[in-house]
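Hi V.,

You were right to ask for the full record rather than a summary. Here it is.
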Amino acid sequence: MFSGIVEEAARVTAAERRDGNVDLTVKCSFGEELHIDQSVAHNGVCLTVVSLNTDGTYTVTAIQETLDRSNLGDLKPGDEVNLERSMVMNGRLDGHIVQGHVDTTAVCTDIEEVDGSRYYKFEYEVSPEMAAKGYMTVEKGSVTVNGVSLTVCDSERSSFRVAIIPYTFEHTNFKQIKPGTRVNIEFDIIGKYLARLAELSQGC
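Predicted structure:
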């Protein structure tokens, strides 16, 4: 479980496809603190550390299901990826409850600078089936974009905007996002549970 508070935007040093999987090798400041089998969110996707390398990097594996639902397959050496280690349960929840299970991808369609901050607009494909499962945003609700916990504004049927303050811009890979960039989206788990409860209640 994660909180959506990114620890570091780290560099991908290698991305190797093996059959249907992709091995991502990453260099970060806390690499020496990691251990095999530890969970780390990469652009919001929970992945398991499978190897620790002698150069201070570590490697994780993204399976085909993950590649189909996320932008991890787009990553190449030199790209930045947002990292967050799993949440410490005796700490403060500064973001919101994030599972690290990306639901879909969205595309940045507009960036507007307002009083030193930036508003990013994202659009995603939506269907009645997705909406019925709670794959949606609500005004002032929570959403995770590339692993960053954010508050929704201008929520529409298939799009939403988020405001990015300068600190978040500088310390995450939001500084690399431009119109046309594909990002990972995890919708709020609370909405998914409510949608499931509503579905089950209809059969009672």
